[in-house]
Amino acid sequence: MTDEFPDPTEPFPVRQADGTPYLGSVFLAPATSHPRLRVGAYTYASAFDPPPDWAAHLAPYLFDFSPERLVIGKFCQIADGVKFITSSANHRYDGISTYPFAIFGGGERQGRASLPGAGPDTVIGNDVWIGQGAKVLPGTRIGNGVIIGAGAVVTGEVRAYSIVAGNPAKAVRRRFPDAVCDRLQQIAWWDWPIDVILTHEDKIMGCDVDALAAVAP
């Protein structure tokens, strides 16, 4: 094992005692190449049964031809069983039937009445912790520093530094007072160089916002 912090381009950042990579946790950016998925540095996902395709495992309805994107920020933590249900999973539900005739043929897909229009992107902020088995629904926008409880079903917009849980997910509370949340957004430690982050890890993990602001580069 090594004491060096892994490079963000290394897909397997965790090493076992014998030095071999642990395959159940990956930095998503280097571990995926999906054209509609954008992931920030140091964001990792875990799975007890490591998949051959991490993008398909996490976002099974995000196809190469999907019009929407899944955007995930830096330093996010994605637990086992999390699923992002992106807009291409949708059916039309504004008419009499919801059946997607067009995906089975019978003519060109383009412009078919049984296909929904393009849906919104799903956007996850920085330093977001998504708990085991949570589902994030199409078009959800999750702010920085959010914690999502295990098994939660999340939709809509989640304010930065909130804790949400349940089905449908509801805000349990904000992690800090509003003024502190606003200040943390301005400090944006996730944009600092990694050497500065590691030097001041104790302040990032602590509760003294003044001390954290004082060391901002």
Write the layout of secondary structure elements.
Blueprint: E1 25-27, H1 28-31, E2 37-39, E3 44-46, H2 54-58, E4 70-72, E5 77-78, E6 83-84, E7 122-124, E8 129-130, E9 135-136, E10 141-142, E11 147-148, E12 153-154, E13 157-158, E14 162-165, E15 170-174, H3 178-187, H4 194-199, H5 201-205, H6 209-214
Parallel strand pairs: 2-4, 3-5, 4-7, 5-8, 6-9, 7-10, 8-11, 9-12, 10-13, 11-14
Antiparallel strand pairs: 1-3, 14-15
Structural notes for this entry:
- With 217 residues, the chain is an alpha/beta fold.
- It folds into two domains: 25-175, Hexapeptide repeat proteins (UDP N-Acetylglucosamine Acyltransferase, domain 1, 3 Solenoid); 177-217, no CATH class.
- The chain is 17% helix and 18% strand.
- The protein has six helices and 15 strands.
- The chain has helices spanning 28-31, 54-58, 178-187, 194-199, 201-205, 209-214; strands at residues 25-27, 37-39, 44-46, 70-72, 77-78, 83-84, 122-124, 129-130, 135-136, 141-142, 147-148, 153-154, 157-158, 162-165, 170-174.
- The strands form three sheets. Strands 1-3-5-8-11-14-15 form a seven-stranded mixed β-sheet. A five-stranded parallel β-sheet has the order 2-4-7-10-13, with no helix packed on it. The protein has a three-stranded parallel β-sheet with strand order 6-9-12, with no helix packed on it.
- A hairpin with a 4-residue loop joins strand 14 (162-165) and strand 15 (170-174).
- It is globular, with a radius of gyration of 19 Å.
- The relative contact order is 0.10.
- The mean pLDDT is 95.
